[in-house]
Amino acid sequence: xxxxxxxxxxxxxxxxxxxxxxxxxxxxxxxxxxxxxxxxxxxxxxxxxxxxxxxxxxxxxxxxxxxxxxxxxxxxxxxxxxxxxxxxxxxxxxxxxxxxxxxxxxxxxxxxxxxxxxxxxxxxxxxxxxxxxxxxxxxxxxxxxxxxxxxxxxxxxxxxxxxxxxxxxxxxxxxxxxxxxxxxxxxxxxxxxxxxxxxxxxxxxxxxxxxxxxxxxxxxxxxxxxxxxxxxxxxxxxxxxxxxxxxxxxxxxxxxxxxxxxxxxxxxxxxxxxxxxxxxxxxxxxxxxxxxxxxxxxxxxxxxxxxxxxxxxxxxxxxxxxxxxxxxxxxxxxxxxxx
Length: 339
What we know:
Neuraminidase, five-stranded antiparallel β-sheet, disordered N terminus, mainly beta
């Protein structure tokens, strides 16, 4: 679905230009406080309750994916129709498009060339679109799961390098990272199920920095693992956070959304669902916590503005504003650093 200039104008006229800001209170951590390794500088953010200017007839579903391009246009990927929605930083709706199976929407990314990438855990495919929504490339076979080089089984995320090389976290079943060249030809893969370094319990999200290092959110192992493009393990950062989503800015700032790393009572397993709390972190390239922002967790979805539950996607614009998407709340929200 696309909006005409007339419908956009009517949308603008019909809305108040009032931005309501609410301070996010610090949330308490379920079961136990964060360890010293999880602690860091805490800085409050405020939520823009009027963002975005979504038409009333759009019914958002779960909100797993959110990304920002170099012009601060915000792309959201929701489990509803239209699945892909593009907004200005001020909340103005620009355009939308649908996908074949919106229920399987997972992460959405912007490539270095401005093209849009999506991962679908139901259709088992990764797709590349133009910024206007034209389908350009499909990796995997629609509707067919597999573990060979040409098939995925519930792929979660993708990172695209300036060279065009593509790295996909084939996460929920195959527990691997699989690499392709710019034309979609298979290159290599690494990883398997496990808890040892280099193995994955669930490679849930992936980003790449300007030096080609790949950061993988190994969610169910409550750690981030760092690799080079050949699959060589460079670092393991355990027990900092249970990472759900990752975002790297053009300045190589690594942002993570998820929950505190808390073990289930009486076990060595990490508590992932339901998450004990909701938290955002900014990490250095060596895994040091530079900023820790606790968020208010929703009690009854969708909750109040500023609240999140199962926070899943994170992105930043050039002004440092944060954009979050969550599953249980089913919303995309914009947050700004408190002056």
